[in-house]
Design a protein that fits this description.
164 residues; alpha+beta; 7-stranded antiparallel β-sheet; elongated
């Protein structure tokens, strides 16, 4: 799994909490909330050409919005991730704090905030994904603003920091 796919995996794990969400019975237009946390471990063999073990814990707080008929129309998911990326005896802190939105009427996904920030033990940033990204349900990019080196393919500082 490549680095760009990791964010999608975390959002996907967080979305698992959406299964079975229905409109509130009393007032269809009243938002509902779901909070949960989980952890993950993945081995990324694509990003740098050597295996990187990615471990993390995440929390998600999702708010669901409905139309007057009780149909789910959109969700707003605040995701926080804290973890480590490790390779070649080196471990780097990896964190994220962003909002993931999904519009059930258009299929548009959106991310806004610090999607990932990887830092060295001394505090230097070697990778930061921050800003806004919009994509369709197939993952096709519709809009990108901010710093997104994994999208542009400029991950050399990240790979060098883990190469040893």
């Amino acid at each position: 799994m490549g680095y760009a796919h990791r964010r999608a995996a975390v959002v996907g794990l967080a979305a698992l909490g959406l299964v079975g969400v229905g409109a509130p019975s009393a007032l269809a237009s009243t938002p509902t909330f779901l909070e949960f946390q989980d952890s993950f471990t993945d081995v990324d063999t694509e990003t740098c050409g050597f295996p990187i073990t990615v471990q993390g814990n995440f929390t998600a707080r999702v708010e669901f919005f409905y139309d007057q008929d009780g149909n789910l129309i959109r969700s707003l998911n605040h995701i926080q991730v804290r973890g480590t990326d490790s390779a070649n005896g080196i471990s780097l802190s990896d964190s994220a704090d962003f909002i993931h939105t999904f519009d059930f009427t258009t299929g548009i996904n959106g991310d806004l905030g610090v999607i990932t920030r990887v830092i060295t033990p001394g505090g230097g940033t070697v990778l930061i994904e921050a800003g806004r990204v919009l994509s369709d349900e197939q993952g096709n990019l519709l809009f990108v603003a901010g710093s997104h080196p994994t999208i542009s393919g400029d991950i050399s500082a990240y790979c060098a920091a883990l190469a040893g």
